[in-house]
Design goal:
186 residues, alpha+beta, 434 Repressor (Amino-terminal Domain), six-stranded antiparallel sheet, four-stranded antiparallel sheet, globular
């Protein structure tokens, strides 16, 4: 079955924070996530939302995929479907699948299923160190990039501009939106 990143996430957050010699208060200040929430994540007492993951990854300067992967990077070039890490946002039901092998390549592919009427917000800090493209595989997606809103349909591909606070929104009342995000570190 697909790997649940709960333990890996807790270990990675703790590792990234302690490697920088940051107390909980410092990470809370840099990320905008409460000290209590960070503590709960590190103790595996709760699963963070996608927005919280975006804030933490931005504070650390790493991608959400890297944050979810855990401390140990594997050097495999083939990642079978059943071994791909799947994470579900406890608040919205958003499902994120890390498709790419963890062989150290700069390209990361992430498949996302966004439920009807779901919105996922990320701060600009989650985008300051990456380039990404968003390719819609099914459904509709409204990608809010600061003041701009891009409506994407099946087959459309968008390359976002400079880092801005972003919102991924599925405007449908009944259909999920499925899209692929290709990410490269700057």
């Amino acid at each position: 079955m697909n790997k649940d990143p709960g333990s890996a996430l807790a270990a990675r957050v703790r590792h990234e924070r302690t490697a920088r010699n940051w107390p909980l208060e410092e990470l809370a200040r840099r990320s905008g996530v409460s000290r209590a929430m960070i503590s709960k994540i590190e103790r595996e007492e709760c699963s963070p939302t996608a927005t919280v993951l975006g804030r933490l990854s931005g504070a650390f300067g790493i991608t959400i995929s890297e944050l979810l992967a855990g401390v140990q990077e594997e050097s495999q070039r083939l990642l079978r479907s059943q071994d791909q890490q799947v994470w579900t946002d406890p608040q919205t039901g958003y499902i994120r699948r890390a498709v790419s092998p963890r062989a150290g390549a700069p390209l990361q592919l992430v498949e996302v299923h966004l439920p009807p009427r779901a919105k996922i917000a990320y701060p600009a800090s989650a985008y300051t160190f990456i380039h990404q493209q968003i390719w819609v595989l099914s459904g509709r997606l409204i990608f809010h990039e600061g003041p701009l809103a891009h409506e994407l349909r099946k087959g459309d591909c968008l390359q976002p501009g400079p880092p801005e606070p972003c919102i991924f929104e599925n405007p449908s009342d009944s259909n999920s939106c499925r899209y692929l995000v290709a990410i490269i570190a700057r």
